[in-house]
Amino acid sequence: MSTNENTAESKxxxxxxxxxxxxxxxSVRKTFGxxxxxxxxxxxxxxxxxxxxxxxxxxxKSTLLRCANLLEEIDDGAIWLDDEEIxxxxxxxxxxxRRIGVVFQAYNLFPHMTVVDNITLAPxxxxxxxxxxxxxxxxxxxxxxxxxxxxxxxxxxxxxGQQQRVAIARALxxxxxxxxxxxxxxxxxxxxxxxxxEVVRGLKDxxxxxxxxxxxxxxxxxxxxxxxxxxxxxxLERGTAEEVFADxxxxxxxxxxxxxxxxxxx
Length: 266
Fold this sequence. Notes:
This protein has helices at 61-68, 93-97, 115-125, 131-144, 160-172, 190-205, 217-223, 241-246, 251-262, and strands at residues 23-32, 35-45, 50-54, 76-81, 84-85, 100-103, 178-182, 210-213, 226-231, 234-239.
């Protein structure tokens, strides 16, 4: 069993191996107050692929992402990033988190900072990047995400979709090895969802390795290389998007997708 307890000696994260999964989970178990939220989860995410986590609310999708970024301590099992066990207690957790970008459904932008200051904060304070270099990177990202004219705006002057795109730019500013996206359209008005999902499509085309939890079934079907259906903290079914959506093998998966279709969401 691995824990995240701090010790006097930290173990550095190793150099990525080209043939290794970017993220690997083995028999990961997580409980809250005696309730099992993740039950013996196994997962592998290959480089330059998109893995979509689908399932009903409360199935464990968000908890899985939080465990992957060490925001939650697992109770059993192990997690690897580029063939390094990051749940080894000797690993520097802050060094691990610097290599993983996370975007939540809440934008979490600092309201007293401009867009460019929000994006450059982590590169400057955590990664030691100069202000000039960090701002150049931020403005490049804003241009890519269709926000070139918003660098000096404050978050309250942006739409929800624009704020979420800024949050994505902030995550990309540190040049992450892995990007985790947790229901990033859940807080958006329906008309703003498309512009955020289009950004994710662009990142896929650029080869970004991503794991995303989503209720956007049509999007998951179109963009994911691997789909994992979670139910009660268990990865009940996994496969390509075609396999899971067109020919699910588990009764529970079929019932879930049937309700999605009946609701007009697929």
